[in-house]
Every structure is written in structure tokens, then in C-alpha cells.
Amino acid sequence: MALASFAFLPWRSGLLSSVLGLLMIAGADVDARTFFLPDLVTYGATAGGIAAALLTDADRWSSLEAATLRAAGVGLFFICLRIAHLRLRGREGLGFGDVKLAAAVGAWLPLAAIPYCFGLASAAALIAVGFLRRGEALEKVRLPFGAFLCPALWLVFFVDRVSN
Fold first, then answer.
1. What pTM was estimated for this model as a whole?
2. How many alpha carbons fall within 13 Å on the CB side of residue 43?
3. 72-130 confidence digits (pLDDT tens)
4. What is the CA radius of gyration of the chain?
């Protein structure tokens, strides 16, 4: 990720992309093995995304405000999804780590790119469910969504920066 970041992005964006990539590799690895997203990754990514907005845009305070509002909005939306799933199904379907990682998505990505990130992560997770199911009831399949959301966040951030 760092090699691609510095090869295709200006140095500041390449550095930010590399830092995000390291956090996302760590998050995906831990979540895939333990079904747990560490606070160091989720809070670190959210704070990093807000700091990145402050460092990269000419209108620093407006960018800081926008990144903070996006992070809060996406996080709040995922809290609502978590509560709705719990009430409808009677069991947890989304962990707090996923909610915190969703806030990081809002901090790092422009508003128009956020749906692409969640679409990519969801599509990859659905493909994985198809492979993991093996005749098992769909309700019994557990999947660490963060393991899919982490690489999707880095990839969408990288593509967005390359295309701009």
C-alpha cells in the first residue's frame, strides 16, 4: 500500500494513505482473527481522518468541520442500524467496533465516496458468506465486517485521491 501510495500520489497524500493503510491492515487482521476492532485502530483512524482534512485542504477549518460532521453522521447512522438490527432480530448484528470504524470512513472520505466504500465492503462480505456458508443456515454464519470495511476504506480513499 505504501509503495502504491507514494508511486501515484503527491507526497502528503501518499503519507496519509500509507498511515491509513497501516491502520486498516492492523484492523482487518485483528477483526478477521478475533471479531474485535481495537480502539487504537478505530479511534486512531477517525482522529487521523479529521487531522488529514486539516492538513490537506486549503480551507482548513471548513475541512475540519466537514470531516468531523461526516464522521459523526456516519457513526450515528451505524448506531441506528445496530439498534434496529438488535430490536428486529433480538441479537447483535453489528459491533461497536464497526460503528467506530464507520465514523472513520466518514472522517477520511468525501461524502460522495462513502456509499462506494460501504458498497465495496458489503459486496466482498456477501461473496465471503457464499463461500463460508457451506450448507449452514444463513443466520448462523458470523462475519467480521471490519475485515472487509478496512481494505475498502483504504482502497476508496486511494482511488479518490488518484482521481483528483
1. 0.94
2. 3
3. 999 999 999 999 999 999 988 899 999 999 999 999 999 999 999 999 999 999 999 88
4. 16
